[in-house]
Design brief:
single chain; about 300 residues; alpha/beta; 6-stranded parallel β-sheet; 3-stranded antiparallel β-sheet; about 40% helix; binds adenosine monophosphate
């Protein structure tokens, strides 16, 4: 019997899951001459992830998502163990979003014993601040996994979120240094209606800590509002106070040059400025950021 038009559409819309490097490479090789957009994730998907998928769908013929909780970017084993894993829900979100391929590899597939996967490039001071300073080795792990995933999927475009400001800056640096032929597309932060940045870690927040965490967006918004009229030192001390008063433990808050990621002392000397922070809500570590000025 001939397949109806609807059946053909449904088959095309199916998300195919590949666990092996061979499998995903073969599937992509069969789609030659079609542009590929790639969205790497660690799973526990939410609408922030899906916004990257939607951006990829707009620009590319084939969309590949990976789910891999990368052990080499966790500096604490307890953090890795606690990381939420929700494969069935993830797959159903990806199907709804009509993702073509899901790459869901094992650790062995990403890091086979006989393969050197470390990335050795000079990051200058990019990884010496913020997340890099508080999570030793984190960005070595991030570069290692992203480079390996790019090597496997060879996408035309890579989609990452502004949510991880330092991460996308370092990955852009890696792409430039290693002359990788993939264009990085950075997508805006998706927030809950309350302002809380969507994150896989939010599922671990108690209702009370979730409420307290709204202070992060409030603080960042105030920084933006007051950037031109208040000294950087004062802005930071006010923000720390506000976060503490709300019941969170701030780890850092920095006002940085968006290109170099280094702290600034005078707003007028910079065209591109961001504020980045990390804070603990109970035992959940949250990060957030906001672009305060962009006159590039
Ligand atoms: P993760 O699974 O946390 O490693 O995130 C995978 C990708 O999704 C990264 O490029 C993140 O920056 C991005 N991402 C995470 N949260 C959000 C969000 N709220 N809005 C947009 N992108 C996000």
């Amino acid at each position: 019997m001939l397949a109806s038009k609807k059946n053909i559409k449904d088959t095309y819309a199916m998300t195919k899951v590949y666990k092996s490097v061979y499998g995903i490479r073969r599937a992509l090789a069969l789609k030659k001459n079609r542009s590929v957009g790639f969205v790497p994730t660690m799973g526990a998907l939410h609408h922030g992830h899906i916004s990257l998928v939607n951006a990829a769908k707009k620009q590319c013929d084939i969309v590949v998502v990976s789910i891999f909780v990368n052990p080499t970017q966790f500096n604490e084993k307890s953090d890795l163990d606690k990381y939420p894993r929700t494969f069935n829900e993830d797959l159903s979100l990806l199907k709804d979003a009509k993702v073509d391929f899901l790459f869901y590899p094992t650790e062995k597939a990403i890091y086979p014993k006989n393969l050197k996967t470390n990335v050795k490039i000079d990051l200058g001071k990019l990884d010496k601040v913020m997340e890099g300073a508080h999570r030793p080795g984190h960005f070595d792990g991030v570069m290692q996994v992203v480079n390996r995933l790019l090597e496997i999927t060879s996408p035309d475009r890579l989609y990452m979120g502004q949510k991880d400001f330092q991460q996308f800056t370092i990955i852009q640096h890696m792409i430039d240094q290693l002359k990788i032929k993939t264009k990085l597309e950075v997508c805006p932060i998706l927030r809950e209606p309350t302002g809380l940045a969507m994150s896989s870690r939010n599922t671990r927040l108690t209702p009370s800590n979730k409420e307290k965490s709204l202070v992060l967006y409030r603080t960042l918004s105030k920084l933006k509002e007051n950037l031109a009229t208040t000294s950087i030192d004062k802005l930071i001390s006010n923000s720390l106070k506000e976060i503490k008063t709300a019941g969170l433990k701030p780890e850092y808050i920095e006002i940085i040059n968006g290109n170099t990621l280094q702290s600034i002392t005078n707003e007028k000397d910079h065209k591109y400025i961001g504020a980045c922070l990390a804070a603990w809500a109970g035992d959940v570590r949250l990060i957030d950021n906001m672009i305060l000025k962009d006159e590039r």
